[in-house]
Every structure is written in structure tokens, then in C-alpha cells.
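Forum: Protein Structure Q&A
Topic: Joint prediction for protein chains with partners

I've read a bunch of threads here and the consensus seems to be that you should model interacting components together rather than docking separate models afterwards. I'd like to see that in practice. Below is the full input, 712 residues plus whatever partners are listed. Could one of the regulars post the assembled result?
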Amino acid sequence: MKKHNFYAGPAILPQSVMEQASQATKELDGCGLSILEISHRSKEFAAVMEEIISSTRELLDINDDYEVLFLTGGASSQFYMTAMNLLPSNGKACYVDTGAWSTKALKEAKLFGDVQVLASSKDKNYTYIPKDYSIPADATYLHLTSNNTIFGTAYHAWPETNVPFVCDMSSDIFSRPIEMEKFGVIYAGAQKNLGPAGVTLAIVRKDMLNKVDRMIPTMLDYNTHIKKQSTFNTPPAFPIYVSMLTMRWLKENGGVAAMQMKNEEKAAILYKEIDDNPLFEGSAAKEDRSLMNVTFLLKDSDLESAFLDACTEANCIGVKGHRSVGGFRASIYNAMPKESVQVLVDVMKEFGKNFG
Amino acid sequence: MKKHNFYAGPAILPQSVMEQASQATKELDGCGLSILEISHRSKEFAAVMEEIISSTRELLDINDDYEVLFLTGGASSQFYMTAMNLLPSNGKACYVDTGAWSTKALKEAKLFGDVQVLASSKDKNYTYIPKDYSIPADATYLHLTSNNTIFGTAYHAWPETNVPFVCDMSSDIFSRPIEMEKFGVIYAGAQKNLGPAGVTLAIVRKDMLNKVDRMIPTMLDYNTHIKKQSTFNTPPAFPIYVSMLTMRWLKENGGVAAMQMKNEEKAAILYKEIDDNPLFEGSAAKEDRSLMNVTFLLKDSDLESAFLDACTEANCIGVKGHRSVGGFRASIYNAMPKESVQVLVDVMKEFGKNFG
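Posted by a regular:
Agreed with the consensus. Here's the joint model:
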């Protein structure tokens, strides 16, 4: 019996993608080898790399001012790589602190230069996105976390500034169209909307680079991977392959504009129940609610384990909230079917009847 | 038609491992989720991490003086991480240069401190392992590349010294028993004897650490991953899972001592043909020949494309040598069946008849 997978990440992928990945693990497109054992220098894998880069450009409408990289590791590695590559020792990086991942990102940046935290929502346990702050015009970049997986908040409007954004989009990339021209660098670990853990997409505007004079190990220098189109060393071939399959699925399903409509619809169903059901309440400020990670609480926290049991009973898993928020979190990424969201809503309705 | 996969890496894995990986990509052990979409904090994945760490300890006979880590990336990331974590700014790291990977490793180490290259076989295009050199007793470590994938050489005896080795075992780990007490750190990218690309095994003796005072980004500090047992951040779950399956296969097949016997037998068959067949010659010094990567040449290089055609005809792929050596390379890792080696030998015999 397949489960309804509400985990925050690694997370649900399209069913058809997992089936194709399973087949390729036996044999890739009739080539006589598994995707697991094929050389990254083979013509078959070269085609995978070429397709994933061109699909990324197509889906996010990325022009030639930007390089598209698929790097090893996750967003945690980009926390220091962005600062290491972008922030001159006499430069100034600005950060908005919207939760655990922002906090980790700015901690790493401090190793490399002057970091200014322009605003933080820590005062209210990161339940909102700060909006009123001024951005120094001479900042090298402004770092944002577009969607806050743990706290269930997201940017629905970008700050007004000419300072380029460096943005961690790990948990909402490909969930909506983005105005690329605002971004100097976008990075995103694969394991939410893209593929299995182990690869990170980095989109780097070329004019952001070559402004630092520190020594950078070869593997940590964006230029290394730009020169070799992400195959300087053996790339994480399987996570890249599965991410490529997800991009095919995205294109077949109307691209990121269609995803946004579907995501808004799914989120609306779930938030409506949270707002209508007298037992529950949302934990994030309404205007900043994430379309990817829906966080909510039981007003009577004594009922929590009963609700989790009811979820498990209905094959809804991964619904327990992060320990720093408590309550519940339903992650409803691109691949989550509306039907699964409806199953969870039905559990909440039934729970309301039984315990209301 | 399955191919005989002689690629140097990513490389052949046991057929049963690829089949189990394919099944788990659909659904992991009846848990209702694919291995691709399961949380790294789930009890199912926690069991995978626990098993792979204990299997590594069992297979290589590793005691509690050492930590076993599964890190993101490949050996290329360890080139700088080892020096960054181990080499004090007033320390001295010694390197033996046995080919392209050694050269890259020592280049990165130079960013962090004093690097002495004790010996190099560059004078003969890395066709042998240097043996006569003295090792400064006060060196922090001696870096070795145990098996040289490109040049087809390997250490069959370790240098005599009390200086701890830091060793890149990417292409021969688990192929033979090792005397752990000689090693301070062992690292190995997965994509030869372990699993798909995207994860690196690092075995770190605890007394090697905490001797440097430089600032290290959190993700690059071995201590971070030791404290969190390789799950500080989302680990590359699928490459780790497949590597765990390979370790099960290793244990079912007698462990590393049995592998060594099988590897010696396979290599002997192939080297015998290289030595007996008047058309061919080995490219590495006989006493340093690798059991993993068998490099050989046609005495008449004009016949090369005809030989590659004959290999392709017999479904033997990945036999073309690295551009820096030329000729041919048959990589015959643990998972390579003796039968496939025999197919290649038969091609060579037939080729000898036709062109001899």
C-alpha cells in the first residue's frame, strides 16, 4: 500500500519518475548498463547532463548571463560556498534571518567577511517574513531563504532593491515562475522538488564571480565547475539523472506556471480546513504562508498523538511538525497529488467530528 | 543484452545489488515509500546508516580508535578536506606522487601548509610505484594513492614508517584486507567498489584531529559529521543505500579476504594473456600491477581501433585507455565476474590469431 508522503525532505517525487528511475537502475534506455554503473564520460550520461542543463534554462527562463551548475552536496555546502566565492574580504553581505536555514547560512558567511543581518523574525519564532528594513545600496548581495521549510513561511513579494539576491530556494524551486533578473545566485538542494538527496542546483550570474582574492580549493570554486560544465570530477550521476526525469515531468505538466496554479489550489484546500476547523490553527502569519510546507497546530496539544495516529491510520506519513515549531507540518511539494491533500483534509474533518 | 562493463568508474556493481536497488526505488522493504523519497530522519533510513557503518567496521576490522563517515561528494573533495582538517599551518605533509590523482591531492594540500613530495614516478609516466625514499619522522602524515586507476599501478607493500598514512583508496577499497593501524585517514569515493557516485567513505583515526587552528566551514569539519554520525545535513541517501547493499553482498561472498583471492585470480588470467599474446604488452611495471585496473597496449598502435571494434562486438565496453596512457584499460573491480574477464581474454586471443 503506497503511503501519502508528507515528509519535508527527502520528499515525494512524481510516481512516474520513480518508476522510470527504477527501470534505469536495471538498465538505462536499452544501453545494456544500469544508470548506476555507467561512466560519467559516456555519451549516454553526457546526454543526461546536456538535457538537465537545457531543461533548467527552459523551465526557469534563464539567459546566457547565468551558468547552470549541478554540484555535489546539498544547500548546507552552498552556505559557505556562496560567501567564499562571492564576498570580497572588504565586501558586505546582507542577510534576512527567516529561520534555521538562514541562521546557518549567515553563520558560515561570517567566516569570510562582513555580514549584516538586516532583519529577523526570531522574535516570533520565525512565524513571519520581515518586511520593513532598509538595504544598504553598496551590499555585495542580499541573502534570502525563499521558503522556510521548518516554519512554513515564504516570500510572496521580493524586497525592493538593486542589490542582487543570493537565494536558497531548496524547498520551493520549480514551484513557481521567478524573476531571474533579481537574482545573482540561486541554489537549491535537490531533495524537495527535484530528485533524491546528493546534488544541488546552483544558478550563478557570471558578473557575481571573480571579485574575491582569497584562495579557494579547486572543488569549491564555481569557476572550476563552470569551465567543465559540472563534470570536472565524477558528478552525483544518479541524483542528476532522476532530477532530469523530474524536469521532463515538469515540462509535460505545463512547467512552473502550471505548477504554481496547482500548488495554490492544493495549499488553499489545506489552509481552508486549518482555518475552518475549530480544533486547528495555522502557525505562520497568513500573508506569509508557504505553498510547500503547511504548518499547523492543535489548539489542544493533548490531542496531538491522537491526531498523528489518525494520520497514520489513513496512510498519511511525515506529518509531525519540526521540534522547533511543534504541531504538524504537511509538505505538499510539486509531486504531491491533490487527492493526497484531500485525504489529509478528510482526516482533519473526521478528527474534528470525533474530538470537537 | 547486458554488457561486460570494464569502465573505470562509475563502474560495475554486483547484479543482485542493482536489482535490489531497482526494487527499493519502487518501494523500500514494503514500507510504502521509495528509497528516493524517504526522510533521512525516518527509522528505515536510520537503520541503513547504522548497518553501513557497522558493516564497514566489520569488513575492514576497524576498531573504536576510528570514526566511519559517509560524506557528500567524491575523493576530489577529500583532497582539500584532509589537509584542511589534519595539517597544522606549521606542520608538514608528505606526498608520494603516483599519478594524476596524487598530483591533484597534493596541489590542494599546498593551500594549507608545507607539502613535501618525497617521490614521484612522473619520470616514467607513472608506470611504477616509487620505493626508495626516506620519510621525515616528524611529518604530520604521508599521503598515498593505494591504487592508480589511470596508470594501472598499486601498492603491494606499504612504506616502512611510523608516520600515519592518509590514503586515497577510491579504486581498491574492499578489494583486499588492510592493516588499519598504519592508516590515520582512509578515504574512498564510492563509484568503484561500493556504489553509485555521490558519496565518499572516510575512515578517520580520532587522534589525527583537532591539531589545526584554522577556521573550517561547518560542513568541511570532520568533527561536525562525527558528532552527528554523518547525518548533520541530509546525506546522499540513495548512494549510501546502494553502498550498504554492496556491503551485504561482500559479506555474503566471504568479505575482503575472499575478494582478494578472486581479484588475484581474475587479474592473473588477464595479465597472463597480455604477457603471452605477442600483440600486446602491459604498460605498468610488473611488480606494481594493479588488480583493479589492468592497463595494456598494442605493440602496433595502428591496430587499436580494430581491437576496440572487436571488444564492442563481444559486448565488452569501457576498454579504451585513459588519454594520458593510451592503449587499453580493463577495470575489473570486485563485482566483475571471472566470466567477463574470460570474454575479454577470448577477444584478445582471437585478435591475436587474426592479426598476429
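The two ends of chain B are 30 Å apart (CA to CA).
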